[in-house]
Amino acid sequence: MRKGGSILVLNTEKDFEVLKVLGSDLRIRILGLLNGKKLNVNEIAKALNIPQSTAAVNIKALEKAGLVKVENKKGKKGSQKLCSAQYSEIVIAFPSRAPEDREDDVIEVEMPVGLYTKFEVSPPCGLCSPEKIIGFLDAPDSFWSPERVKAGLLWFEKGFVEYKFPNNALYKREPLKRIEVSMELSSEVPGTNKNWPSDITLWINEVEIGTWTSPGDFGDRRGRFTPLWWKLEGSQYGLLKTWIVTDEGSFVDGERVSDVTLKDLKIYDHSSIKIRVGVKEDARNVGGINIFGRGFGNYDQDIVLRLCF
Question: What predicted TM-score, i.e. pTM, was given to this entire model?
């Protein structure tokens, strides 16, 4: 269970008891009724047209699960118990699965989205930190701004950004079994459009791993971590995608995308691991790319590289 402001993130493997409490239409209705307001049990029962005893029992279950707060408040005719929702949004997170069981020996490095070492981008393009726009919009040269290291969101129509990760595999005695690259992505269109496909490709050590087609540029609601100053007409969040390379091939979220294997990447021939992501000029769907990092989108992470032994 992870809390973020008024947002509660439930893990399907760890928070099963809370999920069971939420498995009731009436309790969901109670939480919706209490969102942004405080009501006593009588008011809840009246609003939902249910017996007071039924409202009390379900409030107690929600309180025990930590979803509702009950506090005593003095009134004209004694005290009353006021109920309020602890969270304005509850998210259910399904842990990502690799094609095989995950090993315990994992080295993870998280790279800020603005800490790329090479880029080629075309407008519309830009980048911003959680506080402000960096440089000028639709000006590729702004991608060289020193403030790019603070970026929490960057976007462009076609091209790529490339990152150099430390090659920690060189210091392990165990053989490398799997590489994972995870990031939050969406298409890019002026404004937003949920039906705007874009073919987003990943390369490792200049070897093309595979392509995932983003369905659109999402702006139907504000991203959970997107700052309030960022206009609602702009890209709000993406989808968390994970590329995985093993001895058997390459996958995106468990679906095979190519026959590239660990051997093809020649990991032990390089002092660093180069990760490139972008939209090819000759892609079938040139629909741009948004890369969401910390401070934007629905996931509080930058670009994550995992080496599994």
Answer: 0.70
User: Rounded mean pLDDT of 96-106?
Assistant: 59
Q: Which comes out higher in pLDDT, residue 98 or 154? A: 154
96-308 — its CATH code? Answer: 2.60.120.260
Residue 89 pLDDT class (50, 70, 90 cuts)? confident
Per CATH, domain 2-91 is 1.10.10.10: yes
Annotated domain spans of the chain:
2-91, 96-308
pLDDT digits (tens, 9 = 90+) for 167-211: 999 999 899 999 999 999 999 999 999 999 999 999 999 999 999
- DSSP for the chain? -EEETTEEEEETTT-HHHHHHT--HHHHHHHHHHTT--EEHHHHHHHHT--HHHHHHHHHHHHHTTSEEEEEEEETTEEEEEEEES-SEEEEE-----SSPPPS-EEEEEE-TT--SEEEE-SS-EEE-SSSEES-TT-GGGGG-GGGGG-SEEEESSEEEEEEEE-GGGG-SSPP-EEEEEEEEE---SS-BSS--EEEEEEETTEEEEEEEE--BB-SS--SS--TTS-TTS--B-EEEEEEE-SS-EEETTEEEE---HHHHTGGG-SEEEEEEEE-TT-S----EEEE-TTSSSSS--EEEEEE-
More confident residue, 155 or 100: 155
